Protein: Type II secretion system protein GspF domain-containing protein
Amino acid sequence: MTMSASAFAIVSGIAWLIGVGIGGLWFQSVNGLLMLSTMTAALPYLWLRMRLISRQMRARMDFLPAVEIFYQAYMMVEPRNIRQVLALCLEERRLRSPVRASFERLFRHLSTNRPMEEALRIFSFSLGHVWGQYLTNLLRVGLTEGADISASLQELIRDMRQAQREDLRERNRLLEIRIANFSPPLFFLLFVLVNLRLNREQALYYYLIDAAGRHMVLNGLLLMFASFVMGIWLSMRRM
Structure:
């Protein structure tokens, strides 16, 4: 599912209007209106950012096998020609999507006499992570200087394997941090449900009509939103 810039702006505007309406009717305060409208307006961006992080993580997981396949093909081809190596990798059909699409695009651009720098820049951008930039730099050396990059590819594979092990440990730590961040909102929801269970009418009056109750609900929503944003930010740091 793709979204154009105009569609994204429209969705964000609608979300902002919804936040303004709910904030004005429910919280009946400037702070409530501004805070809720800001949170709802940011939801489309956060959703797109989550999709991007998910794709980047999947691409990083699939990138190591792709580089290993490229290295094997590179060692089989004599002389060491990058274009021939790319052709061999694509002919064997061992590359998995979506990484395969990036290699296909690079091979197509190089085969149609497209400027090399532009083709490599598109290749690096389509991969979207630092390991893709490293491989792009190696390909640039191989294409421009004709140098043997087998040792550099082997070192890159070794570094990527080590980085994947570190990423696994880091993701476990991030999971613990996210659980800790979401604990206050979860306890808040549990507290609200318990109150509704004990005295439904009084709880509804407190949370929906009483100013102090509405303020507490707003703080709970803000805390949950801040925890959600922190989780996304921590994930972005690992990209």
Notes: The two ends are 22 Å apart (CA to CA). The chain is about 85% helix and 0% strand. The mean pLDDT is 82.
